Every structure is written in structure tokens, then in C-alpha cells.
Amino acid sequence: MSVSPEIAPPTPTELLHDMRASVDDLADELVARIVAAEQDYADASLLTPEQLRFACWDNLSSMLANLDGTAPVRLESARAAGRMKAEQGVSLAALLHAFRLGGRLIWEELTARSDGRASQWLLDMAAQVWALVDVYSDAAADAYREAADRRAREDAESSRRLIRTLFANHALNPAGVADAVRAFRIPERGAFLVVSVRDSSSCLSADALRSRLSTVGIDSVWDTEVDGRIGLLWAPAEAALDAALGTLGEIGGGSVGVSRGFGRPGGIGAAVEQARQARRCAPDGSGDPTRYDSVPVPLLVIRQPDAGHLAARQVLGPVLALPADEQRSLLTTLEAWFSARGSTTAAAAQLHYHRNTVLYRLRRIQELTGRDFSDPVHAAELYVGLCAHRLLGAGRE
């Protein structure tokens, strides 16, 4: 009886050569496994099936060529895969899982094709396969992070351009404004306001302002200016915006100017200037938002600065000529008296003075200016002169 000669087990080189010859089928199998295991790949609308298959084919071919000793480690395919997944919205975790699935497929093919007859070299090959998967995964992850960082920078710059367009003159770039409205999902109709917040040490960042307002149901877009923040706020109804202004006064950290309300995004351009002007009219140290419609006299002053300076000199000239401390005490008293709607008792309480002190200082102002407080015309002139000095004097915008 003759004994059949034992068939020699395939060598690693032979197995890997056969696997390289069938890399098309392996790539198809890997694509199927990845899509089944990772929802990210199924959901990535920008990643086409052809792109995913080529990435699988490219990396399998490169890894098998290294394993069979015909090529050195070449990581171009891994880096390309990392960049592509970052640009097309596939998560880093899903990318790394795909490489692990590729390593498992290679290992399963090796064990299946060897028929279990080459256990020692298979064990050696296992370490080689998984070490190579780690090298390729690291290269892909590095490329992914670089691409993601670059994309984030580009997205941030694009967002800044859109925001600047939104708050600029709409007549200069209507197409850009339309793009910005779509990008920030600003509704075509609703209740809108523009607010301007003066910079201060406690002024929140644009992102922080947006986040805080979102907790009270207000959507917003913010830009950072040289001297503060400018923001567009919107909600389905005006009542929600009115309620949010109180929150804004608490968190803004500086004087807040508020535009007129408007109902469509087309009103943003005019509202930006209204909010800035309203902020300029805000009293020093006031935490309450100043509405554009609530300060007609201060608005007249800042719109006509030459006339405002003339009014301040003509009405308050003798007061302004006094030494700084005396001038400050008289003007502070005058401002408190107007704030108290002409009540000397309320003004005294506000200033923590005796009522007679307030009366003395008011009479002193009357002597210097020739304006009688009991005369409505004289009182109005004093108010305009005081507004002009406060808004146009040194230290104000």
C-alpha cells in the first residue's frame, strides 16, 4: 500500500501573494464590514461608496505588500484615508475602527487559507499584522487631526466673514447677506432686535453671550468689535425678546444699546446703527439696556455733535469753568435731580445727601447759569446742556 506524500503547507509569501491577487474581493468584503459596523460611514453624505472602497483597497494593498516583504511601510494611503474621513464628517473613532476591521480581515484570511497547518508562523504573523495596523492607524489619526484642525480654522474664518457681512451694509453685498441668513438659520419672519454691548472687564465673550441667551429661548448671532459686542437676537414673539433684555443687562457687563424691533432680516442694517447710537446714549454705570426709542434728546445730541458742544458751552459754561471737584459735585447733583424727575427729596436719597445740600447746589447752578429750575424752558435747556456734556465730553464715545 502506497502512502501519499504529505503536502507541504503554504509559505507565508505564497499566502500573502494569493491574498494580494484577490485584493479586489477583500476590499469589497471590508467595505461591507465597515458599513455594517459603523453608522458614521452610512450617514456620511459626502463620502461616496467609491471613495470608501478605494480607501479600503489602497490600504489593504499597501499593508499586504509590506507583509509579504515586497515593499517597505508606505503610509500615504493611511494619511489619505485620515484626511478624507475628516473632511467628510466621519468620526475619528469610526476611522480607527475601520483599520482594526481591516487587520481582522487580513488575519482571518491568513488563518482560513493556511488550513491551520502553519501555526507557528501564523503566531509570528499575528504580531506583525497588528503592529502594522497600529502604525497605519497612528498615521491616519495624525492626518485626520491635522485635517480637522485645518477645517475648523477654515470654518471659523468662514463664519467670521458671514457674521461681518450680516452686520455690514446689506446694499453692498445682498448675495452674501442671503448666504449668512441661511448659514445661521435666521427665519424670514419673526421678532428681531440688534443690541450693542460696550466692552468691559466683565463683558462676556460672543460665544458665552449666545449660550446664556439660548437658555432663555433666544437665538442670537454675535460679532466682536473693537469696543464691545454687536448681536442679532430673534424669537417668535416680541415678548420673549423683551424678557431676554433683562438677562442681557445682567450678563453684558457694560452699557447696552437696543435697536427698534423689526420683523424681517432686511432690517438688520439700520438696526445696527440704532443699537450703537442707543449704547452711546446709555448713562454711565447703567446696567439696564437703553432702547433707541427711549432717548430722543441724547440721540439728537450725538447726531449733531457741533450743536451739542455749543449747547453745553452756552448753558453750562460757568459751571464747566469751575475747578474739577466743584464742577463734578454740581453736575452730579443736577443729573440726580433730573433722574428723580425734579424731586429734591428723591435726589437727596439717591446721592445720600441731606435735602438742603441738594437745594443749595441747585441754587448755585441757577446763579451760575441764569436758568430757573421752576421754568420748564430753562429746565429743558439745562437737561440738553447736561446731556451734551455727558455724551460729548472727554472720556465718552
Describe the overall structure:
Helix content is 65%, strand content 7%. The termini are far apart. It has helices spanning 12-21, 23-37, 39-43, 49-67, 76-87, 92-114, 119-167, 174-183, 206-214, 238-251, 268-280, 296-303, 305-320, 324-339, 344-351, 355-369, 376-392; strands at 191-198, 219-225, 228-235, 256-258, 290-291. Helix 2 crosses helix 4, helix 5 runs parallel beside helix 7 and helix 6 (92-114) runs antiparallel to helix 7. The chain contains 17 helices and five strands. It has a five-stranded mixed β-sheet with strand order 2-3-1-4-5, sandwiched between helices. The chain has three domains: 12-152, Globin-like, CATH 1.10.490; 177-294, 2-Layer Sandwich (Alpha-Beta Plaits), CATH 3.30.70; 305-392, Arc Repressor Mutant, subunit A. The longest helix is centred in the middle third of the chain and has 49 residues, at 119-167. The model has no long low-confidence stretch (mean pLDDT 86). By secondary structure, it is an alpha+beta fold. Residues 176-280 form the CdaR GGDEF-like domain. It holds the Pfam family HTH_30. This is PucR C-terminal helix-turn-helix domain-containing protein. InterPro entries: CdaR-like_regulators, CdaR_GGDEF, PucR_C-HTH_dom, PucR_C-HTH_sf, RsbRD_N_dom. Residues 24-157 form the RsbT co-antagonist protein RsbRD N-terminal domain.
**Order of SSEs:** HHHHHHHHEHEEHEHEHHHHHH
- What is the CATH top level name of the largest domain? Mainly Alpha
Order of strands in the sheet with the most strands?
Answer: 2-3-1-4-5
Helix coverage percent: 55-70%
Family: Belongs to the CdaR family.
Domain PucR C-terminal helix-turn-helix: 330-386
Organism: Rhodococcus maanshanensis
Protein name: PucR C-terminal helix-turn-helix domain-containing protein
